[in-house]
Amino acid sequence: MTNAESPPRRKRRGFSKGRLEAFSDGVFAIAITLLVLDIAVPAGAGQHLLRSFIDEWPSYVAYVVSFSTIGAMWLGHNAITEYLDRSNATFVRLNLLFLLFVSFLPFPTRLFADFIQRDSPERVAVTIYGISLLLTATLLMTLWRYAHRAGLVRPDADDEEVQLLTQRLTPGLAAYLVLIVTGLFVPVVAVFGYLAIAIFYIIPFREVRPALRFWRQARRSSRPPETS
Amino acid sequence: MTNAESPPRRKRRGFSKGRLEAFSDGVFAIAITLLVLDIAVPAGAGQHLLRSFIDEWPSYVAYVVSFSTIGAMWLGHNAITEYLDRSNATFVRLNLLFLLFVSFLPFPTRLFADFIQRDSPERVAVTIYGISLLLTATLLMTLWRYAHRAGLVRPDADDEEVQLLTQRLTPGLAAYLVLIVTGLFVPVVAVFGYLAIAIFYIIPFREVRPALRFWRQARRSSRPPETS
Amino acid sequence: MTNAESPPRRKRRGFSKGRLEAFSDGVFAIAITLLVLDIAVPAGAGQHLLRSFIDEWPSYVAYVVSFSTIGAMWLGHNAITEYLDRSNATFVRLNLLFLLFVSFLPFPTRLFADFIQRDSPERVAVTIYGISLLLTATLLMTLWRYAHRAGLVRPDADDEEVQLLTQRLTPGLAAYLVLIVTGLFVPVVAVFGYLAIAIFYIIPFREVRPALRFWRQARRSSRPPETS
Amino acid sequence: MTNAESPPRRKRRGFSKGRLEAFSDGVFAIAITLLVLDIAVPAGAGQHLLRSFIDEWPSYVAYVVSFSTIGAMWLGHNAITEYLDRSNATFVRLNLLFLLFVSFLPFPTRLFADFIQRDSPERVAVTIYGISLLLTATLLMTLWRYAHRAGLVRPDADDEEVQLLTQRLTPGLAAYLVLIVTGLFVPVVAVFGYLAIAIFYIIPFREVRPALRFWRQARRSSRPPETS
Known about the structure:
The structure is a homotetramer. By secondary structure, chain A is mostly helical. The first copy, chain A, has helices spanning 2-5, 7-13, 17-34, 49-55, 57-83, 89-102, 106-115, 119-149, 159-185, 187-202, 205-222. The N and C termini of chain A lie far apart (51 Å). Chains in contact: A-B, A-C, B-D, C-D. The interface between A and C is large, with 39 and 40 residues.
């Protein structure tokens, strides 16, 4: 009972965002930097180094796609924690689960780099890669949804921005699902699709906001009986 | 003498928590992310990539168990430093010793992934793994006990929470001991036991607190002569 | 409309510098520390360890050149963010692109260490290395130019210092271009040139500033009709 | 001239300690965690895993010695930056040079683990290891000496503590020199000597201070004509 009345104690009850962000940033930074370890030109390349270097192109594609995806996840994570006042115990655990998938990504990336351009294994590698990305993105989405429902979002946050963030995280999941299926037939399309999703996430969504609001107001004022 | 009278100097005497946390978070984040480097599908997997991928399941189990354990250790470390006002020289050294074991964990994890499902070496690998976890958990416990005895805990900390943290750190050690012995006979039980302990540590203990307090009050008021 | 009037919201509109710096520092620190993983003496060195150790000199040269370059990039990045009041969405994305090149550097470094002192591949390796450095330096320059044009620089920043930073970032690019071409003919010159550029970036430019200002004032006051 | 009068500008002139510490902590944390990557039991260990595990003891010794040394360097670095009010351009560069040696340490550690217990290469490996430690410790010392001479130490720092820090950093260098020479004849002595130095650095020196001051005062008051 004394406990319930003491206001300074409440502050400690919520989990501080500081170490959560520091630890997450560390995992993101390491996962993104470990990707380069999987790029290697065969030691016996000898006289044909330039050709060997060029033949490694699947590694570069994999590096760029995974770097962009982890970068996009980091931006998304940033956008989420920016709207939070504080964290709580469940959010910290969900975040840990999300990081489990983020730090796993270098492995499917390696598979992808090793088996692309080889007939049958290519499909398997691209599918495993796609499923890993889908799971990671789903957890990022879950993090945001949980934060929203658990009331962790700052009370003064702009409702439209909050809604827009939700809207932006959703289509990625559907797109990943479509691309995973596509990849079973035309793996190369899936690869460029994954890159496109990462770029879509990376494009600053706040830039889109004023345009969006203007468009909505225009619609509302000019054609009132229209259904969206 | 002038020294003894100057209050701002005392502040520097205690070790600042900032760099301790930053360095610890770095070690946790790197150790947890390095785990993925030990997952690899044989380069010659060729046409049977899917099967090779599935055959790597001990690596995934090892990844999940070690990720969960290091994550649980990070949460425990977080819970401890959260209750501290400041650090001192001995605590920093104990913390360094704790990190020595944390950053060692990727090695027994690799052993574990490589030798599981092979008759005799399996027991050795699981035992080495269990002992590494036990030592790491013991040091985390020691860190907390030391902090408590050395008076580093904030004076305004809730006694019940402090006691609960101690209570939660203790059973893990006993469980590790039991599982190490069990692992000598039935290695696979030990493996899932280690995962269970990590999950037990990860479950937010503050959520348990109100229930616990309610249960205690109920017991105290209704059946006074009962011994716990 | 209510939105436009609320001043505390504006603060959240700009991207906080904290996590940008933390994430960037993480990537810099990891990329710079991963360089050592590529230094190895052949396991079969046996009795001739000292000789094997000395024969690894290209690895040490590559380590020092890349460490200095990444260190110089970190210093440059530091100098840039120091002048910024805040960040914005585009700057964060450009920064991510810059880090994509920074974290890629361990790969050309490894090529460089493996193929130097071997006739034809040496040129290829040194050229790939040079192009990687050029691209990274170009992006650092672009980051700064963008920040300057987008009005992210603190209003109270010293104009002369801002100009000097621009002046210092530019010649490096030209020098990289010249050295890439030189490296096609005399690879070893390019190598020491890359080291020289890194050292040039590393030398504290603020020390140069008072001398520069004095020299300018002297020139202006004594010989007015002179053209620079 | 306007420049000289504006007080807020001066603050930016000194290099902020924040990113210097964050970047250094990152490098320390990564270098210390990468050490574990060099511990490996041969893949073909099979039935004799326990024996193979025990046969890897030089790796564990190397791990403990290098972990302790990097940990000690981190503590020393911490002690130094704690006394600084601010940093300057030269200090940042010296710090970068110091980190170049810190992040190099995993390589001599690997050499040491691979070649100990083999007749002639053992001496070479231990000597290379010792020289690396000596150079790293020398740079740490240089960092502190520079900070002291350049007036970066807080004006309110306790002179006795400052002097004590200098006194503690010096004997390590002499000890490293003696051990490098000893290692040429009895490598194993050098190894335990390096561990002893690390532990000497790690023992909290502030605990020693009150004893030291008491001892000095006692000496001064009782036997005045004595020379130290």
